[in-house]
Amino acid sequence: MKKTCFLILLLIHSLSRTDAQTLVSDTLLGGKTSGELIAQFNFPFIQYGVNYYRITYTTQNVHGVTDTVSGLVVIPADTSKMYPRLVYTHGFASLKLDVPSFNVTQNGGEGSIGLLFGGLGFISLLPDYLGMGLGKGFHPAFHAASEALTSADMLRALKQFAALHNVHFNNQLFITGYSEGGHASMALHQLIQTRLSGEFAVTAATHLSGPYSMGEVMRQWTLNDSINNNVAWIPLTVLSYQEAYGNIYTNLSEVFKAPYFTPIGQYLSGMIDAGQMGSQLATLLITIEGSIRPFRMLQPAFQQAVLADPNHPYNIDLKRNNTYNWVPLAPMRIYYCSADEVIPYQNGVLALDTMIALGATNVSGSDVNSGAGHLDCVTPALTNTVFFFLPLRQIDTYVSTTEQQQIPILMEPNPAHQSVTLSHLNANGHVSIVDLNGQLMYNEDLHLDQITIDLSGFENGVFVIRYLSNGKTWQGKLVHYGF
Known about the structure:
- The protein is an alpha/beta fold.
- It has three domains: 18-213 and 322-395, Alpha/Beta hydrolase fold, catalytic domain (Rossmann fold, 3-Layer(aba) Sandwich); 222-318, 434 Repressor (Amino-terminal Domain), CATH 1.10.260; 401-480, Immunoglobulin-like, CATH 2.60.40.
- The protein is built from 14 helices and 17 strands.
- Strands 1, 2, 3, 4, 5, 6, 7, 8, 9 and 10 form a ten-stranded mixed sheet that branches. Strands 14-13-16-17 form a four-stranded antiparallel sheet.
- Helix 3 links the parallel strand 4 and strand 5.
- Helix 6 (214-222) crosses helix 11 (313-320).
- The radius of gyration is 25 Å and the shape is elongated.
- The chain starts with a helix and ends with a strand.
């Protein structure tokens, strides 16, 4: 008993010393059978029941300070399989709790998208974002770096969650997201390819109706005197980028005229939500200007400076949150609807054209419903996503250690520090070691009855060792610690 407790404590310690282990808590919210999911979505391709959890995990806020955020994890209920991972990033939510981990089963709740993908055999991760759900403070909407990091850190937290809940995943990773989530999913995809390729590899991605071109398409669409019912866009981006970079204003009244800065300031302080802010601003514009022309909320000096100076801080901030100027390597699809009144479809067109011009070879996109507005575009965009992902999805059978011990292998020590020894091997066999991301760490054919493996190049954490010989298999979990 003492040895078991020691091993558990050592495992927890070794996990906590890696930057990949960021889980704080998990709470089982519920479960659904495959039949219930088929009835809910009217989609006969669903194969699995699911269990779904709210987790909290650590990430960094826009100032690089450790923060705790929440998200939804949906797990296929059949634990005999190894599933691919899928990240879905949600659209902008006016209410702090209108996020996946708090809005799972309600009609229209984006958490239900996690249930759909879980039923299709994906371990689905849906981050709530900074400042949303159980997150503290202000949500920096359309801030690419924090959108991407909260998603990447949720993938890291999954490893510890999986170890605690007998969940198994392979090395496949799918990414998708809608609206603000399309911006976030593109940012995550780019982050993984350009900076985290040693940790994750994207299998395929779709980005749906997102504002990828903040500095061109969205700027042109909002910074003019036309009628635009998306009245909250300018305040949201000004406030978000001021929070992230601190370079736009000293006082809110430098940007917004009275009385518009009053509800904007109330939203910033948390007194009202984004929906209430937008409603109050629309009422004020109709009363004062006769129509909803958000550009008229801005101070004339700010208007002139932003329009005349491409190096104005607001223009710079918009451009630094573009997410399309790169060359994706994994298969990517961009789906949009040309009648979208919230996020202009030209975002998708510009992203596609730019990526292809830069040399991307497996990128395409389409107008999935030319007559659909922003809300009505969700279903065709997700439907196309499902049928793009399903042929690429791999689900493997997981065989537990006890089921695989047909060969009486001895592995010691475990936990291990500098090396681990396998003995009682057959004359001819093969040993492989993978980490919890599925990355191959060791791979050797053997002709000995014993081998000692050097672990000096291994990070702290849990690894899976597999030995194959004469049609029989042994598999075990190895804990490596470097302290």
